[in-house]
Write a structure and sequence with these properties.
Elements: H1 3-20, H2 27-30, E1 42-46, H3 51-58, E2 63-68, H4 76-81, E3 87-88, H5 91-97, E4 103-106, H6 110-122, E5 126-129, H7 137-150, E6 154-156, H8 164-174, E7 181-188, H9 211-215, H10 241-250, H11 252-257, E8 265-270, E9 284-290, E10 299-305, H12 321-325, E11 326-332, E12 336-339, E13 348-350, H13 352-357, H14 372-382, H15 390-408, E14 414-417, E15 422-423
Parallel strand pairs: 1-2, 1-4, 2-3, 4-5, 5-6, 7-10
Antiparallel strand pairs: 7-11, 8-9, 8-14, 9-10, 11-12, 12-13, 14-15
Helix pairs in contact: 6-7, 7-15, 10-15
């Protein structure tokens, strides 16, 4: 058997198990001696610095075949860790070259998530993508559709979805511990960026950076150190601000436990309107309204960032460092649930009297062994989808993106039709559902 035919056979075996939910272990089919597909995956890393560096370590027990990053300095630690593996700046070239890959891990800035993940999905590769899933709602919908059609295993990088606390919160709510829930208050107190426009200076592009690849599909603009590394989150052309970075973590428990679908309306009230249109408001309060779901009542979710907390339910509650910075309060008619930034941080029942009197119900939802990354790896090998696959992680990401759009239209209530993917009362807002890619880039 030639090397090429072996690679294609292994890919087809993994893809078949993913589509059929089967676990094939025949060594004669795989062509790898006695090793079944339950052994290590052949993984490509796209985005190896920053958050990508963390993901590289998490997947370190697999076969890391090749790494791609446009910024050699940012990826230096990962490149050194895998000094013998090929390195690339263009992910398309890497994917063309390494057809033996089973899966890829995408940890690039938000504005390139979709083009990278789509390229991999169309090749039949399983994908792990950092949150939010994409930069626009159009991209989210396209990725979900492609993942279904190509029968690949997916996972959004909102690691809190695999925490034990996530399951305990839902068990409490299912058991009626806090009664009927009609309100959620969520917060992240620190703003992203300072609201100031880009400086006038035009520094040279560092030799270690492929600026054109970093820009990816967005409109051409000169390089500036105010964009990267990491700073891109506060620029609307590249990032999605506080909302994109934290909604998929902080609202995850509420969305999952309350079975929230798409909101029917979104409204932002920005606390500081003096900001560059290229940036995000330095403070805002976004209200999502969700309709009733079966016997569950309507829910109002309020997301606050850049502002002080002033919730009566927390008046006599001592918050730890994380809860002071980020968290959520799920409010029922019998009590509340307080949790931290990733759905964890020791979720607790409030008030104290409820916590003392209430007896936890039996475990209803299986706990995830090994964490979020391991869950995806097992899913790739077994064919059963991971917990935060694109069918769940996509709509969760859309919440963040809808909030971003709402901040553009301060104090205007946007009515949302999930099925038609359109704002029904605000034609102008619909222009933000997708962007036009520059020449040479496509989904």
């Amino acid at each position: 058997m030639t090397k090429k035919s072996h690679q294609i056979t292994r890919r087809n075996v993994l893809k078949y198990t993913a589509g059929a939910g089967l676990f094939i272990v025949s060594s004669s089919v795989i062509g790898r001696g006695a090793e079944p597909p339950s052994d290590r995956l052949d993984i490509g890393i796209i985005g190896a610095g920053g958050r990508g560096g963390h993901n590289v370590k998490q997947f370190g027990k697999q076969n890391i075949i090749a790494l791609c990053d446009v910024d050699q300095n940012q990826a230096a630690d990962s490149f050194k860790r895998y000094e013998k593996q090929p390195k690339y700046t263009d992910f398309r070239r890497m994917l063309d070259k390494h057809q033996e890959l089973d899966a890829v891990v995408v940890s690039t800035p938000d504005h390139t998530h979709a083009v990278v993940a789509m390229n991999a999905i169309k090749r039949g590769l399983h994908v792990y993508v950092e949150k939010p899933l994409a930069h626009t709602i159009h991209e989210v919908r396209a990725l979900r559709k492609a993942a279904q059609e190509n029968k690949v295993i997916t996972q959004l990088g909102n690691q809190g979805h695999s925490y034990d606390d996530m399951r305990q919160i839902r068990e409490w709510i299912d058991d009626g511990a806090i009664g009927q829930v009609t309100e959620v208050q969520a917060w992240y107190r620190q703003p992203y960026g300072n609201g100031q426009p880009l400086p006038d200076s035009r520094p040279p592009v560092p030799e270690t950076l492929d600026w054109q690849q970093w820009l990816g599909p967005v409109a051409e603009r000169p390089y500036h150190s105010e964009y990267l590394p990491g700073k891109w989150r506060s620029w609307s052309a590249f990032g999605t601000g506080v909302l994109g970075d934290w909604v998929c973590h902080i609202l995850d428990p509420s969305v999952w436990a309350l079975e929230l679908e798409a909101p029917v309306s979104i409204q932002a009230k920005n606390g500081n309107n003096d900001y560059s249109p290229e940036r995000f408001p330095v403070q805002s309060e976004i209200t999502y309204e969700f309709a009733a779901r079966g016997d569950k009542p309507p829910v109002k979710v309020t997301w606050t960032y850049g502002k002080e907390l002033n919730l009566p339910q927390l008046k006599n509650v001592e918050l730890d460092d994380w809860n002071q910075k980020a968290g959520a309060l799920i409010i029922g008619d019998k009590g509340c649930i307080l949790h931290g930034s990733h759905g964890g941080g020791g979720a607790k029942l409030l008030p104290e009297s409820l916590r003392k009197e209430y007896k936890d119900p039996p475990q209803k939802y299986p706990r995830v062994e090994g964490g979020h990354h391991e869950e995806w790896l097992r899913a790739c090998k077994s064919g059963e989808q991971a917990g935060s696959n694109f069918e769940y992680g996509g709509p969760l990401s859309e919440l963040a993106l809808l909030g971003v759009i709402a901040t553009i239209y301060d104090e205007e209530k946007l009515k949302w039709d999930r099925e038609k993917c359109v704002f029904t009362n605000h034609k102008k807002a619909n222009q933000h559902l997708e962007i036009e890619y520059r020449p040479g880039w496509k989904l």
